[in-house]
């Protein structure tokens, strides 16, 4: 600890008038030691400095910060933002430490290196460097751009790979927004009629709002790219299942019979080498989600939606019920970030549905778009208000940024009205937004995005729904009103401290059914299903209210109550989450399993992970399967020693809970304000609950402050 004031500290330690590259490199080393910068960021900059020795400190610092931003989900570094809030680019002060702490650390802070710069001057210095290629705008031609490790686009600095990925994503999406090779498409009136029939079961809105599910479906019939965003239970799966039914009915009819299609028709264009557009062939449709759990949930809800469809059996049979992960679809290769499918070896499919698209990061989206054949339709489903992907990028959020209020071009509005019979508010058709190039582009993207806002899961008297809405609006007063309303499905638990007895009781009662099922040797799948009834969520990893501390405490309490036999190592009842993809084992980051004595291995412990199995065996149907078969149904067993990256998951971070749902969620908030605790995080945590949510914290103000803090990810995705 030093006695120096912040200013003195910065002046004497490392901030001469014009800091040299050596001073900067030495400081980066100290930042790494303090945990402010990732080791990889400092390595990268040292590598650059070795190869371009004349690079000034300002350029090397920009490189370090641009690299560091990736670890925080930003695709690039905004120079102006870094200048406005230099400490925020390194997330300073560190978690659980105050500004005062920075004064005590004897190391230069980022602003010491930025003092004499403005965005223009900084950009000039970058542009002069051999480390940087310069592009005026994101969509400027990049034909002869020199191959350099950094790319400056306007005032955004990228590591080249991420600039490339962002450009590929933009190009891939833009290509799908225009007419296909077969020319303009026009959905026939007959298909519109089928569409209206399929949606007749939807109750009209009491306030006269149009049926947005039907409109979303019509929009997706018209084009090759459609983004459908909506909170939990707003009918995304229902809508997309009806869309698939319409398209399959059309494909199977070959354009004749039940569904008449007009020239340049939507949907019947497969990868048909004969050139026949109207061959009777079911479309090759694939469903994917970013994680195994999300894929399992999609399979389950698609099955539910298909069962409710009123369509001929042949159409029903042509709708897939199994979803896979994006990685599996693309053909992930062990130890490589390259996939088997890419532009040179595209996927063989006609339509791809990607659920939980908010979790798909920029790199993966680039790979997915690259592997998609030109004719294929892409439907992205997700919730724009949720946390973005763990890795860099926020593609769904970027695509939906201007989605509300909805604004469609007049031509689209006319077509939607023709197909759906819905009357669209005049405000929705906005020729005025087409005035400038910028808004014209935005207008075009807007024609591909629809937001479903009415939840069928959380009815008007649902506290979870009201809480989620108040949170999304960032409205403290609304939040207070929600607590006062006395909803039965939400509760506030005031914590006296991390060892709070009421919290312990809740958690013990929450996990008791699953752990008793373990003791009773019930089949593994039953135990897993019981485990998913309850989940303790945390905002943070470290600290007394973080996952690490809570996991230890929960295990101790459960052992005291006799529900588990050990609190460390491998024990029956230990739930674990995979924290790193293991392609050899077919397990992915976020997969959850439970440790149980395996009757097929003489009672030795194995970790059981759920697998999707729709078809039951003859023996199973006749009730002839053995006890061991019953125990292993719908799961697969893995030796604990083969699991290299797992952690106990009595408590889970909200980040890791994305794509999962639980009947009852207890969400523990940290003490005091924290930059990690944002509106998106709180919303995501709350909406993991299907029927009950308990928010636990020492002060309600923490929650109120959180919903006013937003995650803004730097990116430059321009469409
Ligand atoms: N228009 C509607 N009228 C009545 N019920 C509906 C309607 N649309 C959907 N539902 C019902 O609401 C529930 C949620 O629908 P669905 O699964 O399609 O929503 P989702 O947006 O995909 O949800 P999630 O985000 O959880 O995946 C289902 O039980 C579905 O049958």
UniProtKB/TrEMBL annotation:
It comes from the Bacteria. Residues 649-695 form the UvrD-like helicase C-terminal domain. This is RecBCD enzyme subunit RecD. Its EC number is 5.6.2.3. It holds the Pfam family AAA_19. Heterotrimer of RecB, RecC and RecD. All subunits contribute to DNA-binding. Residues 33-158 form the RecBCD enzyme subunit RecD N-terminal domain. In the RecBCD complex, RecB has a slow 3'-5' helicase, an exonuclease activity and loads RecA onto ssDNA, RecD has a fast 5'-3' helicase activity, while RecC stimulates the ATPase and processivity of the RecB helicase and contributes to recognition of the Chi site. Keywords: ATP-binding, DNA damage, DNA repair, DNA-binding, Exonuclease, Helicase, Hydrolase, Isomerase, Nuclease, Nucleotide-binding. HAMAP family: RecD. Belongs to the RecD family. GO terms for molecular function: exodeoxyribonuclease V activity. It catalyses: ATP + H2O = ADP + phosphate + H(+). A helicase/nuclease that prepares dsDNA breaks (DSB) for recombinational DNA repair. Binds to DSBs and unwinds DNA via a highly rapid and processive ATP-dependent bidirectional helicase activity. Unwinds dsDNA until it encounters a Chi (crossover hotspot instigator) sequence from the 3' direction. Cuts ssDNA a few nucleotides 3' to the Chi site. The properties and activities of the enzyme are changed at Chi. The Chi-altered holoenzyme produces a long 3'-ssDNA overhang and facilitates RecA-binding to the ssDNA for homologous DNA recombination and repair. ATP binds at residues 230-237. It is an enzyme of class 5 (isomerase).
